[in-house]
């Protein structure tokens, strides 16, 4: 049963919208209420009212980030929505190798916006290494950003349960992951040569971005689903400005730019080009 009064849920939705662009509809009430109840049991706050009061009047950045962590959903996986990786292989790495496409010198910059715990940016790095002919001649870097503290910490540690890589080709796992031993025998760690390609930073997509790009590729997947239409429109147009001409934007397969006022060209469902 819900423990939230309608006015409390409204207050939470207002904080989530104003700070992080999250559009918490009433369908999320149960989820929010359960997570909040779990959090409150371990917190010094007497009840929801006291916690909301604290958030409204005396919260510092750390308090707000803890609240964001509580609301955010970090589900992700390696090579999730493989059609986006197939697109990159077919329309980006292969034409680059054949000389049918040029980039800025040898630089390839990729942004995993809302990277969660890291499988997305690490997949992008592995994929570039696997599919870019004469990889060593290129300068490939992946920027990985998210706002959730727990997700960012996991991304930095880069250690995952073995079952998260079970579906990947064995050859790839052997090449790009280290198998744990002893107490960590059911874990794998992303190998250093892949971790070195990825820079992990905290970033609230709603705020100003401390980098200018340009990026050849942006993956912004399964995050816009939490934003309302004006927020999505603003966000993708900011990303458009940060892409090189011909740059690629992949969004989640359950998401679309249709109905948004943008200059992007659709090249396949959930893949767009500047
Ligand atoms: C479901 S995960 C998607 C992870 C990955 N992109 C994928 O598709 O597998 C959504 C992520 O968006 C992040 N997120 C939500 N709102 C955000 C915001 N305003 N700024 C930055 N990250 C945000 C959450 O912390 C979460 O890690």
Into how many domains do the coordinates divide?
2
Poorly predicted parts: none
Mean pLDDT: 96
Helix content: 40-55%
What CATH architecture label of the largest domain applies?
3-Layer(aba) Sandwich
User: What is the molecular shape?
Assistant: globular
Class computed from helices, strands and strand pairing: alpha/beta
Q: Which fold name corresponds to the CATH topology of the largest domain?
A: Rossmann fold
Alpha-carbon Rg, integer: 20 Å
CATH top level label of the largest domain: Alpha Beta
Describe what this molecule looks like in 3D.
This protein has 274 residues and is α/β, with parallel strands linked by helices. It folds into 2 domains: 6-71, Orthogonal Bundle (Chemotaxis Receptor Methyltransferase Cher, domain 1); 82-273, Vaccinia Virus protein VP39 (Rossmann fold, 3-Layer(aba) Sandwich). Helices cover 41% and strands 19% of the residues. It has 10 helices and 10 strands. It has helices at 6-20, 29-41, 48-57, 61-71, 82-98, 119-131, 149-157, 170-176, 192-195, 229-242; strands spanning 107-113, 139-146, 159-161, 177-179, 187-190, 198-202, 215-220, 243-251, 265-268, 271-273. The strands form 2 sheets. Strands 6-2-1-7-8-10-9 form a 7-stranded mixed β-sheet. Strands 3-5-4 form a 3-stranded antiparallel β-sheet. Helix 1 runs parallel beside helix 3 (48-57) and helix 5 (82-98) runs parallel beside helix 6 (119-131). The longest helix has 17 residues, at 82-98. The mean pLDDT is 96. It binds S-adenosylmethionine. The site of S-adenosylmethionine (SAM) has 24 residues, from loops.
